[in-house]
Design goal:
10 helices; Rossmann fold; six-stranded mixed beta sheet
């Protein structure tokens, strides 16, 4: 469990204090307009930036108190549009940052539809393919053989981890967006992973997230279920856009559409 105790930043980019929890089994969507503080919030949740006020704890211990190797096994971050510096093979990249065996790597490749690309080099991949490689690497880092393989209820199973993703669907086609979000929802709901995901597509957030945090100008202004947060009236004001709502065929909150 990740817990925020009035955690935030006072210097630019500032982030107003937040107190909340991200529970195992939960997929949290973080949404808001450009410059709202979404990526800044991920640096806080990941521990890559130490809060200037308050604290952030993982499993009851401040992120600053974790040994780097132990934290890496429990928390993984997929940053926004970052390509590795070296021209790795896909399989090599996915195995980086962990002591993963071949079975774990293969499971993570399969989960992200990358099996046929395993021997390809990064320079030969599209932006969307490279983005999926980084998600697969993060899962592999979190001992994801227990996440994407067969369910193991043994006593020696590692506890669920924390996965943080910054706009993971931005370079994906619509089919890959849906498959990735279904995978994330399944990893949270069925395997107990805690996931926080920055999304620009509000309909993806509404369809797949358990909860939504809405940010604007460095402040969290709403938090709750998609039905509670993602209303057209609220979002039209925040995004300065003209929006309407259409009934959702899949249930859940209405689908947001551009007003005519």
């Amino acid at each position: 469990m990740l817990t925020l105790f009035s955690a935030g930043f006072t210097t630019t980019p500032a982030l107003a204090p937040i107190s909340d929890r991200l529970m195992p089994g939960e997929l949290l969507a973080i949404v808001g307009p450009n410059g709202a503080g979404k990526s800044t919030l991920l640096t806080l949740l990941s521990g890559f930036r130490v809060p200037e006020q308050g604290s952030v704890c993982l499993d009851g211990m401040p992120l600053t108190a974790w040994e780097p190797q132990a934290l890496a096994r429990r928390r993984a971050l997929v940053a926004q549009q970052v390509r590795p510096s070296f021209d790795w093979e896909v399989r090599e990249l996915v195995a980086l940052g962990s002591d993963a065996g071949a079975e774990r790597v293969d499971a993570c490749l399969a989960a992200l539809d990358l099996t046929l690309l395993a021997e390809r080099r990064l320079t030969g991949l599209s932006g969307g393919e490279a983005q999926r490689c980084l998600v697969a690497r993060a899962l592999c880092q979190l001992a994801a053989d227990q996440l994407v393989g067969e369910t193991d209820t043994g006593a020696d199973q590692a506890p669920p981890g924390l996965l943080l993703l910054d706009e993971p669907t931005s370079a994906l086609d619509i089919g890959q967006q849906q498959r990735l979000m279904r995978l994330l929802r399944r990893l949270a709901s069925e395997r107990g992973l805690a996931i926080a995901c920055v999304l620009h597509d509000l309909n993806l957030a509404g369809r797949f997230a358990h909860r939504v945090w809405l940010l604007d100008k460095g402040r969290r202004i709403a938090a709750g279920t998609p039905e509670e947060v993602l209303s057209a009236a609220r979002l039209a004001s925040i995004f300065e856009a003209e929006l309407d709502e259409a009934p959702s065929l899949a249930g859940g909150p209405p689908t947001l559409v551009l007003a005519r």
